[in-house]
Design a protein that fits this description.
With about 450 residues, this protein is mainly α. The chain has 3 domains: about 130 residues, Fumarase/aspartase (N-terminal domain) (Fumarase C, Chain B, domain 1, Orthogonal Bundle), CATH 1.10.275; about 250 residues, Fumarase/aspartase (Central domain) (Fumarase C, Chain A, domain 2, Up-down Bundle); about 55 residues, Ribonucleotide Reductase Protein R1, domain 1 (Orthogonal Bundle), CATH 1.10.40. The protein is built from 18 helices and 8 strands. The strands form 4 sheets. A two-stranded antiparallel ribbon has the order 1-2. Strands 3-4 form a two-stranded antiparallel sheet. Strands 5-6 form a two-stranded parallel ribbon. α2 packs antiparallel against α3, α2 crosses α6 and α6 runs parallel beside α12. The radius of gyration is 30 Å and the shape is elongated. The model has no long low-confidence stretch (mean pLDDT about 95).
Length: about 450
């Protein structure tokens, strides 16, 4: 294998001649052979956009000549296009703050810029990873800024899936609005409800979580770029931060602003914790919905069997004909993973000290992973489960008519204790509430008819 020699503050090291990364990344590869996990592709693209924007602003400020600027921009654009993904070698578990990852981009862009200019890789006297590509920047402001931009990129897709889920649930609510069934509390008979009301409640819970997620995303629009090492903006030209924010907004089709306090945004990870916390709460709600669907579809002979979920694959390797609620099961596992990711994010966020939180790499890895698998899971739930749910109206009606809780309807007339005795008699004899009412002559036919009014009973 052919090698080139590169030098840093620790000494000289041989680097494979054909690679685009340099000595600092080579050291990190040796130091952190941990998981084989790599930073998310969207984060790579976002970071390269920051490098492109910085080259433009540095050129406008007169600190970077046009020849270098054009080469750096061209190289950054190729990184954005994914041409150098295989050269991103840094493990997720790396040196604190993401310095190794920042240098991975700096070295790739510098070496590709050198090629564009007709020079060999490693000729850093012409284009330098730190002096040119990283000019007016620090890992400490580029990394958290890239985190914010990347999260918001994934946020857009997550919102699309959430709105779609809400709409499909509302459609089911309308479809099932006349399907009466027994409600259940403590897994025991409770007052009647329509299947449509249940699905309508699910839709509203999704709408509430969308609102919370939107609110949590607002603070992510404020970037710390231009704060450099600790947020004071050392080694940046005038108005660097404001110019960077403007260009990044254009490059990402989003609206970003300079953070009011760059020091605060450099040292605090609270905004990411808040966003992750909303994902956690949302997952708790999704787990509840998935469990409800599994319960209502249990059977087909020995469970509730109120609804039927779409059959998407055989359920057993030994029991022929068995079909399981696999979509709900998969979604629940996704949610469990996100709950674990949230704990990691929380612990990493509180582990910052003074002017910097060095745990940023593990925060962004887990947060982007959470958003991605949640969006995919919701898409799966909407299209492979909710859309195809059908109601077993006969079974639901039977549960409604045989519910012991129906005695509540006559409690205002005969009192709680007599109603309780009536419930015991219904259980002992197997007779329905309505049959006992009629048999004992407790109500007139007109009054009995009113007790069977579904809209009045359910408030629908």
């Amino acid at each position: 294998m052919n090698y080139r020699e590169e030098k840093d503050s620790l000494g000289i090291k041989k680097i494979p001649a054909d690679v685009y990364y340099g000595i600092q990344v080579a050291r990190a590869i040796e130091n952190f052979p941990i998981s084989g996990l790599r930073i998310d592709k969207v984060f790579i693209e976002t970071y390269a956009k920051i490098k492109k924007a910085a080259a433009l602003v540095n050129n406008q400020s007169g600190n970077l000549d046009s020849i270098k600027t054009e080469a750096i921009i061209k190289a950054a654009e190729e990184v954005i296009e994914g041409k150098f993904d295989e050269q991103i070698k840094i493990d997720v578990y790396q040196a604190g703050a993401g310095t190794s990852f920042n240098m991975n981009l700096n070295e790739i862009i510098a070496n590709r810029a050198l090629e564009i200019l007709g020079h060999s890789k490693g000729s850093y006297a012409i284009v330098h990873p730190n002096d040119d590509v990283n000019m007016s920047q620090s890992t400490n402001d580029t990394f958290p800024s890239a985190m914010r931009i990347a999260v918001l990129e994934y946020h857009k897709n997550l919102l699309r899936e959430l709105y779609a889920l809400e709409q499909v649930l509302r459609h089911k609510s309308k479809q099932f609005r006349s399907v009466i069934k027994s409600g259940r509390t403590h897994l025991q008979d409770a007052m009647p409800i329509t299947l449509g009301q249940e699905f309508g409640a699910y839709a509203d819970s999704i709408a509430n979580q969308i609102h919370c997620l939107q609110k949590a995303s607002h603070s992510l629009h404020y970037l710390s770029i231009g704060g450099t090492a600790i947020g004071t903006g050392i080694n940046t030209p005038p108005l660097f931060s404001r110019k960077m924010v403007k260009i990044l907004s254009s490059l990402t089709n989003s609206t970003f602003k300079k953070a009011p306090n760059l020091i605060e945004k450099t040292q605090s990870m609270t905004d990411f914790v808040q966003y992750s916390a909303v994902l956690k709460v949302f997952c708790l709600e999704l787990i509840k919905i998935a469990n409800d669907l599994r319960l209502m579809s249990s059977g087909p002979r020995t469970g509730l069997a109120e609804i039927e979920l779409p059959a998407v694959q055989p359920g057993s390797s030994i029991m022929p004909g068995k079909v399981n609620p696999v979509i709900c099961e998969a979604l629940t596992m996704i949610c469990f993973q996100i709950l674990g990711n949230d704990l990691t994010i929380s612990m990493a966020a509180q582990a910052g000290q003074l002017e910097l939180n060095v745990m940023m790499p593990v925060i962004i890895h887990n947060l982007l992973f959470s958003i991605r698998i949640l969006a995919n899971g919701i898409h799966m739930l909407s299209n492979k489960c909710i859309k195809g749910i059908t109601a077993n109206e006969l079974k639901c009606s039977w549960y409604f008519e045989n519910s012991i809780a129906l005695v509540t309807l006559i409690t205002p007339t005969i009192g709680y204790l007599k109603a309780a005795e009536l419930a015991k008699e219904a259980v002992a004899t197997g007779k329905t509430f309505y049959a006992l009412i009629e048999e004992k002559g407790l109500l007139s036919q007109k009054e009995l008819k009113q007790l069977k009014d579904i809209k009045k009973i359910t408030g629908s």
